[in-house]
Amino acid sequence: MENDDKKALDIYTAQRSALVDYAKSFLGAGGQSEDVVQEAWLRFSRANAEKSIDEPVSYLFRIVRNLSLNQYQKQKRDPALVDFRDAVGQFSTLEKGPDPRETATARDDLEQVQRILEQLPERVRIALEMKRFGGFKLREIALRLGVSVTTAHELIAEGLAACRKGLKERK
User: Fold this and answer.
1) Calpha distance 63→58 (Å, rounded)
2) Buried b / exposed e across 20-40, counting CB within 10 Å, b at 16+?
3) Relative to the CA of 20, which of 1, 13, 69, 71 has its CA 20 to 30 Å away?
4) Are 94 and 38 in contact, with CB atoms under 8 Å apart?
């Protein structure tokens, strides 16, 4: 089992900066991304100790995604949890705030996209989130998912098409 622990730590260490960037895509540039990744490591190592994980990299990214979304929801409920470093950049846009109707529409669209993402196959969702939210290059996505660059591109295109279709059907 000690060998499994070493492998898990090696995977986490190799993916750590990508995991932090992935968490930042949900939470912004504040220090909460680091906390989310640390919590993800704790959960990942406990799960790895209990059973063998088939796709450990995907599993780690899924943990970070879920924890980030949970943290984001907490921030929405309690604005005091928002990191000051994130809030500073928002003050400049508050002066000219958007039309409330546009804000409500954008919020509805975002919630619809979140529902669509949850229904996508895991590899499609991860590839799309890495590209659109994490800013990863196709080559990096392909490497992390263990697929070709062409397949990574196809996964992203499939996810985008599903999002477009879902938003179009709603309107």
Assistant:
1) 9
2) bbbbbbbbbebebbeebbebb
3) 1
4) no
